[in-house]
Structure prediction request, 849 residues.
Amino acid sequence: MGGSMMVSRTRLNPSLFMSPRPLFRWLHRWLGLFAGLILAIVGGTGAIMSFQDDLLRWMNAGIMQVTVPEGATVLPLPDLLARIQAQKASPPIATLRVSTEPGESAWVGFRARGKPAGEFVNPYTGDLLGKARGEAFFHTVENVHRRLLAGNTGKAITGASALVFLAIMISGVIIRLRRAGLKYWFKPIGHGALAARTQSWHSVMGVWLLVPFLLVTSTGLFWSYDWSRNLWLVATSTPKGKPAPYKMAEVSQSAPDLQAIADRLATLSANRVQIFWPNKPDEAMRVLWQNSATPHQRAFNTLQLQPTTAEILADQPFVSLPFGTQIIRSMFALHSGEYFGLVGMWMMFLVSLSLPLFFISGLWLYLRRRVRPRSKLVKFSKITPDTAPVLVVYASQTGTAQTLAQMTAQRLEAAAQPVLFRSLDELTHAELSAASMALFIVSTYGDGEAPDQAQGVIKSLLGKQQALPTLSFAILALGDRQYRQFCGFGIELRQSLLAAQATECFPMLMADQADPVVLDEWGSQLASVWGGETLTAAAPSPAWILSKRQHLNPAGMGFPTFEIELTATHTMRDEWQAGALIDIVPLQPTERVAQWLHAAGLEGSQRVLFDGVEQPLAEALRHHELPAISAGKPGHDIPTWINTLRRLGARSYSIASLPTDGVVRLLVRQVQTPAGELGIASGWLTAHAPLGEKLTAQLRQNPSFLPMVDPTVPCLFIANGTGMAGIRAQLEARIAVGAKRNWVILGERSPQDAYWLAQWHLWESEGFIERLDWVFSQLPTSGAIRYVQHRLGEAHDSLKEYLEENAVVYVCGSATGMAPAVESVLSNLLGTEGWQAFRRSGRYRRDVY
Ligand SMILES: Cc1cc2nc3c(=O)[nH]c(=O)nc-3n(C[C@H](O)[C@H](O)[C@H](O)COP(=O)(O)OP(=O)(O)OC[C@H]3O[C@@H](n4cnc5c(N)ncnc54)[C@H](O)[C@@H]3O)c2cc1C
Ligand SMILES: Cc1cc2nc3c(=O)[nH]c(=O)nc-3n(C[C@H](O)[C@H](O)[C@H](O)COP(=O)(O)O)c2cc1C
Prediction:
């Protein structure tokens, strides 16, 4: 995860590497804005219709449902029809629906011109009950849903919107595509600026609802376009056209024998039956019926009866239909969710309801961008070098942003441009208001947060609603795409500056693991105003030799952890101080490359040009991430292909020694991939690299983890796992100045995992550690699992005393679990405000990863 600061020597044009993502983002935005309102209307009306039957039933007690008279049963069919006709002799009856559900009204449809007319009927008395209240409303809602109340034109518009919706979904997925964990796809962010949260919810909900959206759109299209219907028919192997009504060979002019029909229906043990009287004398009487075995509410078994004898002419149970035909006949149920029962109906209700929300949130995000003056983007190169100082501001946790800011400032100064160089926490509002140009280089730490020193700074600096209309700014944001909120702090800073009416000079640059291509773009932008070369950071050099590797916990319960020592190929001076990191560029082990070549069916001995040197493919591959074979084998043009691979990035390690030790000492834990392989860098350092191997590495100062060299200031050191490395160097620095007020809390799984146990106890016995606490989480005797944070919580009084004496607290080790838990102990003790002030005071120093 550590970032390399290498800057490529060849100037690369970033636009060559631009993904089609901006195009899809543009499509997504504009299609969403244009079709969004229609989709919101279709969705909103769809949601209203989702529970139409239940709502109508609730509104129509006494019409759709009746009280069952004591001991009464549903009237026999001939009697029921006779009573209906006694009340309404014409128009003739076209259909009758009866249910066995107690209290459920029957429904009779009359053969009327135009709209089908019908009324509910009390099945116990035969009384006509009239129409259901609210039916007209739902007809209108349906008309809006399907045709926007605009007939065929409306139907064409809703159909087109469904197609546009497909394009919105596809473009939405494409713009979100990146190599990220499941959390990124499925969990919206819970904090940060409102716009960032809204954006996250908009995208993540889109992912969750993608499948139901596809279902509802593809089924909706069934009714919109012939081609779409035909596609469904072909896909389900269903013949085109409606099944023709059954034609009888012998035609009788007599009236249907209702008793015979009723007797026939009684044999069905149906719980719902609807009878359709024939339209023509040679047509059969059609009966649709359901029983408890019918798969869903809209699936019907069909029976064709000879009207005068009730002889069965055709019998077609739903489940006997070919599966494709069942799907076609279930189209409405699929669209409404009824196909999947109550769960499906609720799902479709929520899906429909979400469409207006998607439109509103998308519109809000768009308007916000427009209102926030993105349009004020001015061309950076139009800015003339000025005599007024340019602000160069950084916020950095582990030093990368700080180094880049220093290089930026040096570049400007080389062009005789006065510079005001500040860390974000030092910057005052007056300085910001007075400046006409500010360049920000900021990284993101924690979970999308500001680096420690810059915590809360945006609020105090830019949250005062004070406008900065004369300020132009540019941001280089550093981050890592493996985290959920890539460059979260850079984004927050940009939004706050835009909100303060500052003008952005060019779109914020976001560097993934200090991506050299992005740094190069930053350098080019600077060069367009102040001239000069692109930025050149010190590149890791092969200046370190792997001189010692010792397995420290062979009997331990944790992953194998090694003490690693590196010696310099040059004479060492005071090149680093306690808290520093080393960024090591690993190599792939030769065996892994050989296996990969074998699986890819490639010859490792073929020569390729890499880094200006012709070398075997197997050797060149050792510097790269090996793509999954399933992602497709490389084509024939291997020399070109090798240059498309991602180079292995440097990994950071906390240094456990001081230059006076003569070695760079590290504590490296073997990390395992989900496939059980060793992590690239930890595997390289602990298992694959031979002793004596030259390593390409770069030392890096860590501004958030500087040593406290005033012996009168007490220090509390808290570490778990390999975090002991960072603490060890800090303690050495304290011992070098004779500081004795040191309290150390160390945590691991078991005493066999307690790295450098003898060394800690020696320092304790020499009086350099006044209190040493070991916490072993997996000790069989310890009962509940205990970690360093628990020990800290228990030592409440000592902790209070230390803090009252202005102690500096160092935390090194796991960023998840340990560090937040330690922070919560501290904030419980200090209170929220006290804790914030403590963080800002620089007395809370952490090196967590
Ligand atoms: C500021 C800083 C200081 C660090 N100090 C140390 C140190 O002193 N000692 C040390 O051993 N490591 C330290 N690390 C972690 C180190 O940089 C590497 O991330 C770690 O060694 C794994 O790299 P890899 O190439 O072996 O794994 P990769 O090949 O990059 O990853 C392999 C697999 O392991 C997972 N993975 C990566 N890192 C971890 C992890 N830390 N824990 C669990 N799973 C992981 C990945 O998701 C992946 O599935 C530090 C990191 C930072 C940012
Ligand atoms: C513990 C930890 C948390 C991080 N969290 C994020 C994050 O949420 N989002 C992000 O984009 N990068 C994150 N990063 C990556 C850093 O921003 C990136 O490595 C950057 O280059 C560090 O710059 P700095 O050295 O100036 O702090 C994190 C790094 C670490 C070690």
About this structure: Residues 61-131 form one domain. The chain has six domains: 20-60+132-238+322-371, 61-131, 240-321, 379-521, 541-700, 704-848. Residues 1-19, 372-379 have pLDDT under 50 and may be disordered. The chain has 27 helices and 27 strands.
